[in-house]
Amino acid sequence: MPNAIAAVLAALLLTVAPERVQLEPATAAQVLAAVRAAEAEVVVVNVWATWCIPCREEFPALLRLRRDYGGRGVALLLVSADLAADTAATRAFLAEQGVEFRTFLKAEKDQAFIDAFDRDWSGALPATFLYDRAGRRLASFLTPLTYEALEREVRAHLPPRAPAGG
Amino acid sequence: MARIPLLLAALLLPTTALALAPGDAMPAREVKMKNVDGRELTLASAAGAKGTLVIFTCNACPFVKAWQARIAAIGNEAVGQGVGVIAINSNDPKVVALDGYEEMQQRARELGLRFPYVVDATSEVARAFGATRTPEAFLFDADGKLVYHGAIDDNSQDAAAVEAHYLRDALAALIAGRPVALADTKALGCTIKFR
Fold first, then answer.
1. What is the predicted ipTM?
2. Is A110 on the interface with B (CB under 8 A)?
3. Domain coordinates in residue numbering, chain B
4. Which helix (H) or strand (E) holds A23?
């Protein structure tokens, strides 16, 4: 019961108004331009969809990674592969998850979109790609990731942390 | 160092790198699968004189729903042209309840499928093909060699706006005895929920 109350409170705190959600139609090339423009040490690109159960399940881990590592040079770019007809549901989900930062909506034919990220990607969702500051792909994960796995991968590409207080 | 197991795990997971490539022989030919009519059949028994179309599909995926009328039309047409057609559901109904057997029967009736829609009860057929998503098509020639793998066409959202009819074109080439021009295509899809 206390857990249920905590979950409700957390949901209330996270929720943003759907009209504040930023969902920009974009091609893969435009997403990759945003990767370079992020000027982050590691850019995590996650392709997801509202109807994709494993995508929804891993979503909180991605947002937690952004909260925990946003200040350490990690950027998160979320790309929805939802159908254009489902934009209202996409916005509602992002709002419910408390996503107030810029996100993208796939606006291109599948084959070109898929191959621009990774030719070995079959198109199954979710898919997560790591890029460096210059936009070079560091890794592809064509399967859902846990927070621990995400953190491990991202940390492996971050410069060593300066000692605290140093 | 901690990255190595994860990288290995990623390599071992099914990706297109492990999917059948053009020219590969049809795998899992003798695995028995239960059809929506209650009978058991195998890929070998579903083969046609001119070739065999295998489509991994399911009941609930939005991309399957977007394409299912086109899949039914293409499949029904191919059956009349000497191509064996078989739709396979490899999803675990424990993950997606709508992928149960009764729902498959209902779907086959609604769509008027004139070809089998079978249960891959252990997902082993999908694994043998290296299939990862739904819908995903594999077309084999009369000798059981893969001639096409991939998407139905280039526009799941709008049947009227399709520019490249990948699967239709591959079938037409196969039936006419011509080589398939575009043998491997991709589309976004739902992951197969492996058992």
1. 0.77
2. yes
3. 15-191
4. strand A22-26
Angle between helices A53-69 and A147-156 (to 10 degrees): 50
CB A45 within 8 A of CB A128: yes
One CATH from 3.90.1150.10, 3.90.226.10, 3.40.50.2300, 3.40.30.10 for B15-191: 3.40.30.10
Q: Is the confidence at residue A154, as pLDDT, over 80?
A: yes
Mean pLDDT for the stretch of residues A92-102 = 95
Say which of B16, B95, B187 has its CB closest to residue A110.
B187
Encode pLDDT of B104-158 as tens digits: 999 999 999 999 999 999 999 999 999 999 999 999 999 999 999 999 999 998 8
Calculate the alpha carbon distances from A142 to A26, A77, A123, B7, B100 in Å.
21, 16, 9, 11, 26
User: Which domains does chain A carry?
Assistant: 14-156 (3.40.30.10)
Q: How far apart are CA A80 and CA B129, in angstroms?
A: 28
Q: Using alpha carbons, select from B150, B126, B124 the residue that is nearest to residue B22.
A: B150
By a Cβ cutoff of 8 Å, what residues of chain B touch chain A?
Answer: 2-3, 6-7, 10, 13, 15-17, 19, 61-62, 66, 95-96, 132-133, 136, 151, 154-157, 185-192
For the whole prediction, is pTM greater than 0.95? no
Tell me the pLDDT of chain B averaged across its residues.
92
